[in-house]
Write a structure and sequence with these properties.
The structure holds 2 protein chains of 2 kinds. By secondary structure, chain A is mainly beta. Helix content of chain A is 0%, strand content 50%. In chain A, strands 2, 4, 5, 6, 9, 10 and 11 form a 7-stranded mixed β-sheet that branches. Chain A has a 4-stranded antiparallel β-sheet with strand order 1-3-8-7, with no helix packed on it. The radius of gyration of chain A is 13 Å and the shape is globular. By secondary structure, chain B is mainly beta. Chain B has strands at residues 4-7, 10-14, 19-25, 32-37, 43-49, 55-58, 61-66, 71-76, 85-93, 97-100, 104-109. In chain B, strands 2, 4, 5, 9, 10 and 11 form a 6-stranded mixed β-sheet that branches. The mean pLDDT of chain B is 94. The A-B interface holds A 3-4, 9, 31, 33, 35, 41-45, 48, 55-56, 59, 91, 93, 95, 100-107 and B 4, 31, 33, 35, 40-45, 48, 50, 88, 90, 95-103.
């Protein structure tokens, strides 16, 4: 089966610009998670979708971040406007409701300059 | 708030040596994961530990869980260069979200 796909793999943008990250989960996985690793720090939870609904967005840093999951399939994470501290690697993961496994994508490395 | 502490954060070791990575967590959880990440790649699941005393082994890696001590270990036996990577432990909290340790960057030298 295809894994979790994220794109772009790298993005370099200027402060104040907008960037949209995309995650395609494994087909049939209802749960979709976004995580972020800022340079030198631990990987932190951002939010969790169950199908198209936001189950928990307690990790979203501020209202410059907007996540959507259209039709319960792929998800996008938009950062607008981007700030320097948003730089890091953004990971997406998906899982089913009944297994213990999370499958992660390769991440998007975002650099805000 | 669940906190997960991993140590060491960086480990340089010779091939053939043994070493242990430690993962402490602050509150009760029913699942603990170990992941491996190679540069630019995804997090690869190594082990899922579900119960106290659980021990799992795959090749040169062995993971164990002590839920009473809130401690998991990842033991490396006779390290080889191919094991060089960053290793993360992660603990499940309410809502099935993962709380990660800071990661251990392992370098195995010939």
């Amino acid at each position: 089966e295809a894994g979790v796909t994220q794109f772009p793999s790298h993005s370099v943008i200027e402060k104040g610009q907008t960037v949209t990250l995309r995650c395609d989960p494994i087909s049939g996985h209802d749960n979709l998670y976004w995580y972020r690793r800022v340079m030198g720090k631990e990987i932190k939870f951002l939010l969790h979708f169950v199908k198209e609904s936001k189950q928990d967005e307690s990790g979203m840093p501020n209202n410059r971040f907007l996540a959507e999951r259209t039709g319960g399939t792929y998800s996008t994470l938009k950062v607008q406007p981007a700030e320097l501290e948003d730089s890091g690697v953004y990971f997406c993961a998906s899982s089913t409701r009944v297994t213990y496994g999370y499958t992660f994508g390769s991440g998007t490395r975002l650099t805000v300059v | 708030e669940l906190k997960v502490e991993q140590n060491p954060l960086f480990l340089s070791m010779q091939e053939g040596k043994n070493y242990t990575i430690y993962c402490n967590y602050s509150t009760t959880s029913d699942r603990l994961y170990w992941y491996r990440q190679d540069p630019g790649k995804s997090l690869e699941s190594l082990f899922v530990l579900l119960s106290n005393g659980a021990v799992k082994q795959e090749g040169r890696l062995m993971a164990s869980l002590d839920t009473k001590a809130r401690l998991s270990t990842l033991h490396i036996t006779a390290a080889v260069h191919d094991l060089s990577a960053t290793y993360f432990c992660a603990v499940v909290r309410a809502g099935n979200m993962l709380t990660f340790g800071g990661g251990t960057r392992l370098m195995v030298k010939p």
